[in-house]
Design brief:
By secondary structure, this protein is mainly α. Helix content is about 75%, strand content about 0%. Helix 4 crosses helix 12 (about 255-270) and helix 5 (about 95-125) packs antiparallel against helix 7. It is globular, with a radius of gyration of 20 Å. The relative contact order is 0.16.
């Protein structure tokens, strides 16, 4: 299994470019490649929950690496989403008027089409869930065999953003960032008290971290474009991240996650990963995330999980093919729905 991680490293290094300062480090062509790397890491993490991997050295190393990365795999998605939203808000005076349609409704129906597939599959393979699951699965509050918590949290963060739009009413971008941050802390507290597990809340503060990164974007770029300051920033963030990560304090894991995404952003100014494979993976990251358990659930039903090699060989290409088709479908639907 560790060969899968090695393959990902090789793919990531293909076409890598080093520079003093890559000014396009937060543009989609760069961030999509980073999303692509983490999309596969998430896929591999979910994959191993279906199979029993033989306890040999290389496989143990494989599981150790995934465990150490942990919830940080999803942090970049929150971060880039928060950054992109505030960038659009700063540039588009009418952005808040279309936000509900373009962010919340689009995310919901992109998600719910996949959820419907899981519901149908569940009945076909006798994987019947409690009635409450079928009532709440459409917003990601529960699962019908799919991955769900990330969608639920990002939808709530979008609602928080809309509330902040109405509070601020174009008075101040700074107040907008403050409002989202305060409501995000409240959400963190609520999920800390009532959610099913720590993964529901431990990285969500990276969403507001992305907004603050956008707010101070010009100042940050001036520092990162300076060779000395950029190196100092990378070292300082690395030390803070390492300290928090070493002690793994659950209640301040949000700081660890924020340091991680800031570190990714700072390193991106010097190391540009990008090729057609990573770009494709990043473009299809949402579809990979939401569809990955479909083929895995089917293969488990037919007891393919008994052979972990065969399960892996079959499930990964099935996920990628389904994700590609699903993304194409969503793109076509968007032209006739949300984009109208």
């Amino acid at each position: 299994m560790v060969l899968l991680l090695i393959s990902l490293v090789v793919i990531s290094l293909y076409g890598v470019k080093f520079s003093h300062y890559n000014k396009d480090y937060m543009l989609p062509q760069n961030t999509n490649s980073i999303k692509g790397v983490f999309a596969i890491l998430i896929l591999l993490t979910h994959l191993r929950s279906y199979i029993e991997i033989p306890n040999i050295n290389l496989n143990t190393d494989f599981e150790y690496i995934l465990d150490r990365i942990g919830q940080l795999m999803v942090a970049v998605y929150f971060f880039y989403s928060g950054f992109g939203i505030l960038e659009s808000y700063k540039k588009n005076l009418n952005y808040e008027k279309t936000f509900f349609k373009r962010r919340i409704l689009r995310t919901l129906y992109h998600f719910d089409i996949a959820v419907l597939l899981y519901v149908v599959l569940g009945f076909c393979i006798s994987d019947v869930r409690p009635v409450l699951n079928y009532l709440t699965c459409w917003i990601g509050a529960s699962s019908v065999g799919n991955s769900n918590w990330f969608i639920f949290v990002i939808l709530i963060l979008y609602v928080i953003t809309i509330i902040s739009f109405n509070i601020v009413k174009r008075r101040s971008v700074f107040i907008m960032c403050c409002s989202v941050t305060v409501f995000s802390v409240i959400l963190w507290i609520f999920l800390r008290l009532y959610s099913a597990g720590f993964w529901w809340y431990d990285t969500l503060m990276t969403f507001s971290a992305g907004m603050w990164f956008s707010y101070y974007y010009n100042q940050i770029n001036r520092l990162l474009s300076n060779r000395v300051w950029s190196n100092i920033i990378i070292v300082v963030i690395s030390v803070i991240f390492a300290i928090h990560y070493h002690y793994h304090w659950v209640d301040v894991y949000g700081i660890t996650a924020c340091m991680f995404v800031y570190l990714i952003a700072a390193i991106s100014t010097k190391v540009h990963i990008g090729n057609t494979i990573l770009t494709w993976l990043g473009t299809n990251a949402f579809s990979i995330y939401i569809l990955q358990r479909l083929p895995m659930n089917i293969l488990r039903y037919f007891n393919v999980t008994d052979n972990y090699v065969l399960f892996t060989v079959l499930s990964i290409p099935m996920v990628l093919i389904m994700a590609h088709i699903y993304t194409l479908l969503l793109n076509k639907l968007d032209k006739y729905t949300v984009d109208l």
